[in-house]
Amino acid sequence: MTETVGVGAEASGKAARKRQGGANARKGLRVERVYTTAGVHPYDEVSWEKRDVVMTNWRDGTVNFEQRGVEFPDFWSVNATNIVTSKYFRGAAGSPQREHSLKQLIDRVVKSYVKAGTDNGYFASPADAEVFEHELTWMLLHQVFSFNSPVWFNVGTSSKQQVSACFILSVDDTMESILNWYREEGLIFKGGSGAGLNLSRIRSSKELLSSGGTASGPVSFMRGADASAGTIKSGGATRRAAKMVVLDVDHPDIEEFIETKAKEEHKIRVLRDAGFDMDLGGSDISSVQYQNANNSVRVSDDFMQAVESGSQFGLRARMTGEVIEHTDAKALFRKMAQAAWECADPGLQYDDTINDWHTCPESGRITASNPCSEYMHLDNSSCNLASLNLLKFLREDGTFDAETFAKAVELVITAMDISICFADFPTEPIAETTRKFRQLGIGYANLGALLMATGHAYDSEGGRALAAGITSLMTAVSYRRSAELAGVVGPYEGYARNAEAHQRVMRKHAAANELIRTYHTNDVNVRSLATREWQRGIEIGTESGWRNAQASVLAPTGTIGFMMDCDTTGIEPDFSLVKFKKLVGGGSMQIVNNAVPRALHSLGYQDEQIEAIVDYIAQHGHVIDAPGLRPEHYEVFDCAVGERSIAPMGHVRMMAAVQPFLSGAISKTVNMPESATVEEIEEIYFQGWKLGLKALAIYRDNCKVGQPLSTGKHDKADAEPEKVVEYRPVRKRLPKKRPSQTVSFTVGGAEGYLTAGSYPDDGLGEIFVKLGKQGSTLAGVMDAFSMSISVGLQYGIPLEFYVSKFANLRFEPAGMTDDPDVRMATSVLDYLFRRLALDYLPYEKRAQLGIFTADERSAKVEAEYAGSAGEPDNVDLEALRSSVDASGSRPVEEQQSAGNSPAPAREAHTTTELVELQLGKAADAPLCMTCGTKMRPAGSCYACEGCGATSGCS
After folding, report:
1. Which residue has the higher pLDDT, 927 or 494?
2. Taking the CB of the first residue and of the last residue of the chain, which one, N or C, has fewer CB atoms within 10 A?
3. Within its chain, how far is the Cα of 475 from the centroid?
4. What's residue 586's pLDDT?
5. 420 found inside a domain
């Protein structure tokens, strides 16, 4: 999309000759087509199909959501369809008013934007407004970009037209302000968004009140806010409240703040060892405090320099500013790293760096951020987000289409600014500040996939150069368009007061762009265009001002990333090389990410080599020893987790590469291995300051107790001594008289008998296996094995645990059986536990284990055929079972029968769980409270690829 800004022909004299003039010279934007064709509506260019959306909780089989006959383009994935239908369609479920087509959803939003743009004078003519509508529709339809979730929730409905996901509040040193903080935060949580604030104005516990008493200090008031967040979360939604609490490093209570969550983590461990349910979402986790917020320390350059030199640092009274205490800066910094090692909090925010890039310092300092740390601006403000799908701009020849990307950014940033014209806000102070400064947060997703597809390692100079160039271009075009908008509809209200500072920051961005070192044709082209855009934008903005105080951030893109079918979120690398793909008609298959074969092609491999390498990755989940893959190319396929995971400093270096080109900051947590030391965390935090980041948080694997299914072992030698409370299981013996059944079986010609005894109230309690001649070694071993299993069952070990361990064991005798439900067995134990599962486990648990009766298997295949009938994306199950598709993807069923990683095929339900099984250890990620599956990281939050839910502020 290109455009010209019309100059008012009616105006006369000097004002009419200006490129952008005053109010009497403004006429509006003229918009030219890029993606669309005149006379053809975007909806008429794609094929549409009807789908049924049925989302279940795999743990208990309950239906979370159901809507049948929804209409989507045939190229949208099942996952994107499910998430958009369940989360974004409006109207009461089952009613005629319920939206049932993607057309309705896009029209509801786009037409609202076009109407507001027309009413507020953004377009030169109705024809330009129509082109704008068609271009926006085409891009949303083809998953080129997406607005943040509140837009889809609210715009065009009878609800308040809230478009922002990110909020910053403020609190002063008065009880009225503190209580108002609780209220405002609660309103934001109730609406499903998150907020952050800085508590440093509140007097410390070492200062006196005017009445003569001692102040409570900010940490004490954090308890009330935490309880409020927890209550509203549990009452209004199922997900964890998203909030950020910041305290300045020179606050006298800083040490208490630093250790707040670490001390609670110690408490969690003691309660866990005493038998309480302390998992995230567990029944007893609410008994500990401060669990609903992310904590960050605001460190200054003075403090970091004191750390570097090993000198003292002064803590200052809040009311007078005088130093009331000195502390050892290095020791305090060590406490931050120690606390982060223990519980991942606090993160750091680098205050002087943040405010050095502040466009509006005359209107106030930047003191806080939103919960995910990407939005940083004035107190009592908000930011609406939108993200572009970078992979949509990668041409077939491997070059990045910088020109089209720039035109897409123009369109998106224009729409984002229009939204502020009609947006509603949770509080009046937030509304006032946002309308005065018009903060926007354009960003992107799929950077990790783009880098891999172009043959760049994430942790490489070439990868960082391309990422920096793209980010610079995005922000340059955004500010250039913002300057053009200022010439059409006026600059933001606070611009006049901050004009000099705003222009200074624009020049800083442009200067940083010149420092990008290029390595590839892609880098050169992108940076060259960015250079021209910065020059053009500064020229226009110096004359007209800018419409927006800020333009860009890098958000987590959790739910909207799924909506756009992105492989990677925000700035993140690929999570893993394989993932789950849902199939039309139900079921799923394990596939190798599409970026992998594109990367191999970019690196010069032939089709036969690519097929062999992709097939190897499908079976093993990594590239080590892949046939024909050169070791020097391994790094291109490094991921966030797995056999070759990116080093922590690799993540920090990528953040540092793009930070100079963002108005705000980056939502990202640097994951560190469980073996990471406090000293290594110190180094990460220190390098974050040195490299010019605005914020940084780390997460050390298994540092938190409150994580579901986290089974990593902890090094007790490195932890503080803890009180150990030993609890022993109790054996539940079978009664003298109990029901039992005996089954005769044959496996590979070997005959035997299985007798299973049950508790009267149901449930297997013992087994006896007769195999081999009485007195033989085999018979004795089977007797001992039977007793061992029986005692385990009576001590409460679930049958499904034994089934998962012994099914698929392979040894002789093996082969055909005489059981119609288990036709083949890889060993006697494989047969025995499959038979026990069929007799004693409910269908839902057997389905998780991949064990079905003959009738159930037949019905399942028939249902799958029926479900896919008439669908363009229907799946030939027999073909899937017998072949590997063109991208090297293997169906789950095939992997089971072939013996390739049977556990992942049988037990995993998301990509995270698949990676857990490949690595042999649990991932520190919460379970989705909506559908029960394991979430995966998305920036500093988590996102569920099953239903699209997020743990942050979306």
Report:
1. 494
2. N
3. 22
4. 63
5. no
Q: Which residues have a Cβ under 8 Å from the Cβ of 158 and sit 6 or more positions away?
A: none
Query: Can you tell me the distance from the alpha carbon of 436 to that of 497, in angstroms, rounded to the nearest whole number?
Result: 12
Instruction: Tell me the range of 73-77, 214-218, 587-591 where mean pLDDT is highest.
Output: 73-77
677 closest CA partner among 341, 356, 451: 341
Q: What is the pLDDT of residues 649-662, one digit of tens each?
A: 999 999 999 999 99
How many Cα atoms occupy the beta-carbon half-sphere of 220 within 13 Å? 10
Same domain? 733 vs 791 = yes
pLDDT tens-place string over residues 120-142: 999 999 999 999 999 999 999 99
In terms of pTM, does the model score above 0.85?
no
Q: How many CB atoms lie within 10 A of CB 132?
A: 25
Q: Which residue type sits at 879? A: A
Q: What's the pLDDT band for 870 if we cut at 50, 70, 90?
A: very low
The encoded tokens of residue 152 equal 């889809």
At residue 710, what is the residue type?
S
Q: How many Å is the Cα radius of gyration of the chain?
A: 30
Nearest CA to 405 among 478, 461, 455, 463?
A: 478
Number of domains in the chain: 3
| Residue of 79, 370, 384, 593 with catalytic role | 370
pLDDT confidence bin for 226, thresholds 50/70/90: confident
Same domain, 52 and 94: yes
Instruction: Give the C-alpha separation, 591 to 835, whole Å.
Output: 31
Closest CA relative to residue 139, chosen from 542, 564, 577: 564
The Cα 599–Cα 617 span in angstroms is 13
Instruction: Provide the pLDDT for residue 750.
Output: 87
* Same-domain status, 827 and 802: yes
pLDDT score of 167 more than 70: yes
Which tens digit of pLDDT belongs to each residue from 354-382?
Answer: 999 999 999 999 999 999 999 999 999 99
The domain in which residue 100 lies consists of 33-142
The angle subtended at Cα 691 by Cα 509 and Cα 197, nearest 5°, is 80
Q: What is the DSSP string of 143-191?
A: TSEEE-HHHHHHTTSSS--B---EEE----SSHHHHHHHHHHHHHHHHT
To the nearest whole percent, how much of the chain has pLDDT over 90? 61
Q: Which residue has the higher pLDDT, 906 or 951?
A: 951
Which is the catalytic residue, given 99, 135, 184, 374? 374
Which DSSP string corresponds to 681-734? HHHHHHHHHHTT-SEEEEEETT--S-STT------GGGSPP-----------PP
Claim to verify: residue 13 and residue 126 sit in the same structural domain: no
| Tokens describing residue 156 | 């065009």
**Distance, CA of 341 to CA of 337 (rounded, Å):** 6
> Is pLDDT of 849 > 90?
no
The verdict on 13 and 129 lying in the same domain is no
Q: Which residues pair with 768 in a beta bridge?
A: 755
Q: Give yes or no: 360 in active site.
A: no
Report the length, in residues, of the chain.
954
Are residues 28 and 47 located together in one domain of the fold?
no
Residue 93 falls inside a structural domain: yes
Residues 791, 729, single domain; the answer is yes
**Residue 807 — φ and ψ, nearest 5°?**
-65, 140
Cβ-count burial 36-51 (b if 16+ within 10 Å, e if not): beeeeebbeeeeebeb
38 with 9, same domain?
no
**Could you say which of 94, 113, 142 is where a domain stops?**
142
How many angstroms separate the Cα of 109 from the Cα of each of 105, 388, 482? 7, 17, 22
> 3-state DSSP helix/strand/coil percent for the chain, to nearest 5?
45, 15, 40
Q: Where are the alpha helices (DSSP H) in 310-345?
A: 329-343
Please tell me the distance from the alpha carbon of residue 196 to that of residue 223, in angstroms, as a whole number. Answer: 15
Q: Is 372 a catalytic residue?
A: yes
- Catalytic residue among 343, 372, 941, 953, which? 372
Identify the pLDDT of residue 844: 82
